[in-house]
Write a sequence for this structure.
């Protein structure tokens, strides 16, 4: 009976050893799969780093474009103001010149009449 028990124990031990070997093989496969997944994740992280770098570059470019646009708007506003002021001065000068020409014309007409009257006397 002891032999039978020992035989049964040996058989159980062998079965357990086989099952442990199968479990070890499965764990080995799982570790290989995890290693491949880890490698893929490393590749994804590298790509994400490159994308993040590109996004940072684009963000800096966008900021500089915004600053340039704002500066251009300020410059355009300043130029428009200066142009309006110059035009106003030019328009005022034109009106003064027109008034002076009209006055000279009137004086010339008056002088012509006076000369004609003097000649007739």
């Amino acid at each position: 009976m002891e032999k039978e028990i020992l035989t049964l124990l040996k058989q159980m031990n062998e079965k357990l050893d086989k099952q442990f070997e199968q479990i070890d093989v499965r764990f080995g496969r799982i570790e290989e799969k995890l290693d491949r997944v880890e490698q893929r994740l490393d590749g994804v992280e590298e790509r994400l780093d490159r994308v993040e770098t590109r996004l940072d570059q684009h963000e800096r470019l966008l900021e500089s474009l915004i600053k340039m646009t704002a500066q251009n708007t300020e410059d355009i506003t300043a130029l428009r103001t200066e142009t309006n002021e110059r035009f106003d001065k030019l328009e005022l000068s034109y009106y003064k010149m027109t008034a002076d020409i009209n006055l000279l014309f009137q004086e010339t007409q008056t002088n012509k009449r006076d000369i004609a009257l003097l000649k007739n006397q």
In short: The chain has a mean pLDDT of 92. The first helix runs from residue 2 to 120. The helical segments are 2-120. The CA atoms of residues 29 and 59 lie 44 Å apart.
